[in-house]
Design a protein that fits this description.
Layout lengths: L27 H14 L6 H8 L5 E6 L6 H4 L7 E6 L15 H12 L4 E7 L3 H9 L8 H6 L3 H10 L5 H20 L3 H8 L4 E8 L4 E6 L4 E4 L1
Parallel strand pairs: 1-2, 1-3, 3-4
Antiparallel strand pairs: 4-5, 5-6
Helix pairs in contact: 7-8
The site of zinc ion has 7 residues, from α5.
Length: 233
Amino acid sequence: MSEVLKTGAELPAQCAGLAVGAEHKWPQPLIEGFLRFRDNHFPSDDIEYLRLFAEGQKPKFLIVGCCDSRVDPALIFNCAPGELFVVRNVANIVPPNEARIGHHGTTAAIEYGVCNLGVEHIVVLGHEHCGGIQNLLQTRGATNPDSFIDDWMRLVESARVSVEREFADATEEVRRRECEQRAILVSLKNLLTFPWIAQRVAERTLRIHGWYFDIKQGQLLGYNETTGAFEPL
Ligand SMILES: [Zn+2]
């Protein structure tokens, strides 16, 4: 049993369920998963994490991905610890450079990856059957003051509007896929509104990419600027 550290911090009464006791239920599959992970990565002769600890992280790739549980960048790209710097949010959106009000979690992560870690590539990774995009299409861009999702998804409202205009007679499936891909392009444009990104892209020390994971086909598509289409990589 490891030593119990007491922080001295007190939680509100509503958090009483966090206390460890006979009634407390840990999410057991996660603990079992951690033990398997530890066995794989922390054998006595394995120095992978010791090296990462000593040298610090130096990832070359920053991924802006969706929260979707099926689209884990480290799994999809078969990457090892330390290789990817990842920020995930609903529908993998990059907000534009805007006034410094509010809490800009995604922007802060991108700034850290670019300015502090010096990543060489940013990949905006969209995917098929995105719940965030589905929400945007269903609400038709209207916002419910009680929903954080509605307001967040309005960042890619221009993608929805263009799809509704150009694909009015298409099936819901086609419109959603188009909207998922066009939203990626909105994020690519937004990336360039940050001067510390635009400058590095102009100097070719940083490259930005729009990718799309087709869950059903198990296919990765990349946006080709020349053809203006997402094509298999
Ligand atoms: Zn999604």
